[in-house]
Each structure stands twice: as C-alpha cells, then as structure tokens.
Amino acid sequence: MILKDTIRIGVVGAGSMGTGIAQVALMAGHSVILCDTGTNALENSKNNLSNTFKKLQEKGKIQNADDLISNIIFTNTIDALNNCGLIIEAIIEKLEVKQSLFKSLALIVNDTCVLASNTSSLSITSIAAACAYPERVIGLHFFNPAPLMALVEVIPAIQTNITIIDAAKKLMLKWGKTPVIAKDTPGFIVNRVARPFYGEALRIYEEGIADMATIDYAMTQIGNFKMGPFTLMDYIGHDVNFVVTETVFQSFYYDARYKPSFTQKRVLEAGWLGKKTGKGFYDYSPNAVQHHPKTEPELLNTICERIVAMLINEAVDALYLKVATIADLETAMTKGVNYPKGLLKWCDDLGADYVLNLLDNLYNTYHEDRYRASVLLRKQAETKSKFL
Prior knowledge:
Layout: E1 9-12, H1 16-27, E2 32-35, H2 39-58, H3 65-69, E3 72-75, E4 86-89, H4 95-106, E5 114-117, H5 124-129, E6 137-142, E7 151-156, H6 162-174, E8 178-181, H7 190-193, H8 195-206, H9 212-221, H10 229-236, H11 238-251, H12 262-269, H13 297-320, H14 326-336, H15 343-350, H16 352-366, H17 375-383
Parallel strand pairs: 1-2, 1-4, 2-3, 4-5, 5-6, 7-8
Antiparallel strand pairs: 6-7
C-alpha cells in the first residue's frame, strides 16, 4: 500500500512552510526528516518546533512535546531522505531549482517513495518531467501557516499514477486536513480564483474611484471578508503575492484577467513588503497616520459588487474548464482563503443574470478582455440555472 500511516516523511526546506508541514506530519504520528542546506535555517526550525510543542503542551493540547521533537531529524544532506515514503519539498518558487532537486531525489529514494511539491503555482507536470519517476510525483499545496490552515490542494501531474492521487487524499484526511483535487493549471484553484480580489481592487484604486482604506472597508463591511485586499496583500507580503500574480499572468500567456499592477510592483521595488517590514500599502509604525474610509453606501456597494463579480466569474470559468468540481471549488475558497461563502453559492444568491450584467457593463465600458464573462456564466444566466 502506498503512503501507509507509518511511513517516514521527508521535508525539504526549513522555512516557515517546511517547518509547518513537518509539525503537521509529526502530530499525525510520523517520524520526520527535515532537510535544508542552511545550518541557521535548521537551527531556527528546531527551536520553533520545540517552542511550539512546549506551548501546545502547556495549553493541554498535546501531552508529549519531548516525544514529538525527538521524532524529527534535522539534516543538511538529501541522502538522509533515502528511506522516506513521502518527501515534500517547500523550497524557493523557481522551476529550475525544484526540477534539480527532484532529479537528485529520484536517484536516492526507494522504489515506493512519493515525491510531492508544495508549489503554489508552478507546473507539477514540468517538475515531474525532470525526475526519473514522474509517475510518483504529485503536488501537495499547503497554505500558510500549515498547522492551522485546513486546506491542501492535491494536484496530479499528467504523469501521476492514479493510485497516488487517492492515496495522497486519504493521507491528508488522516492528517486532519481538507484535501481538494485540482487540475495542473496555473495557480491551481485558490491562487487562480482569488486573483481578482487583489487585481480588481488595485484597478479600482488606480482609477481613483476609491482609496485603499475605502476599498478594504467595502470588502469587510459589505462583502463580509475577513480582511480587505490591501490589508491582506500587506499581510501575505508583496514579495509573495506579487510573484504569484506575475507567475499566473505569464503562465496564462499574458491573459488580461491576471495582469499585475504597477502600483504593487512599485511597492515591492521600494522594499515595502508589507507588515513584516513595517510598511507596505499601509504604514505599520507606531505613530503612523490612520486613514479613514469613506462610508457612502452606493460607493461601497459598487466596489464590492465589482470585485465579487470578477471573483465569481473566475470560479465559474474554473468549473467550465474542469479545474475542479463544484464541491472542491467551494471548499477551496472557504477553507483556503476564508471567503464568507463559496463563490458559486454567491452566484446563485445574486443570480447568474445579475452577475453577468455587472460584467457585461464593465466590458462595455472598458472594452478590455479582462472583463469577458465565462461561457458557463452566460449559459447559466440564459437558462436561469443554479450551481448548487
């Protein structure tokens, strides 16, 4: 049986994501080997895991902090991973670097080991192609922080053996995660469907329709999102968020729907990465001036409806192109990015004809392909059908 409960888990990359994945595997009862070429990264990871387990024990959430930390080996050589049953890489988001790693791993692993990538947007098929055993490669995209976020996107490459897909999904369930199956297309589910939350907010700001604070206020107060788009981009970090947007844009052959924003690029170029550097779209210094949003209901509704319509259109098109099932699309957006409800349910609530009218008005105003409505949305509007 592939991916047994007792297999040893290898994790490559001792950053916050790799450390988080290692924690999840340890708490699910596996022994873990965490590999990184950086001695400081390994030491920081060891200290973070030790402190985390001690805090969890103090809160009564676990009883065996010392046992858990004793069940992980920290190493700077991939040769130590030779007896793992599953290896998950969580290294830099560069295709050639990941391909090189997988090529090396394939030379040392046993004949049942599954190799998984935690990439958020790169092609699993391309990564698998560099490996001697492409049929044993799969994507397992965890969300940060991995111990707290339930969603895991399971992405088979076109070469992946079908038995591994089911085995990976079952293993993630045993780890207490919520797995969804995504087609190997740029951004998979979440990073594809969520792009308009950032991109359309930036466009509204660049047009001078509203300032950042007002756009954020509209999305939290009218849309009931946990965070507004500018606050969320600052929280994620522009070095991460902009790069994902740029990667998806390039991977979709420069489709206007995913076009990055110069506003965000300039913030990134300035080194204002967001909350982690103390400045991004907002200033997080102690004496920073707080910007108060405008609260006119008509303006707030216009902002919210425009962004939500774009999000719905993206979800509908992902369904149309069979990126994922209805159930997995809804789960991904509620569990992966904490949307107040699934976007297909949102479309049903508003009415496909209403959403289509919003998009067609935008298209007629701008004459940009960015605002083209999905064929499936148009069909739903014509037949007055519902997704759920």
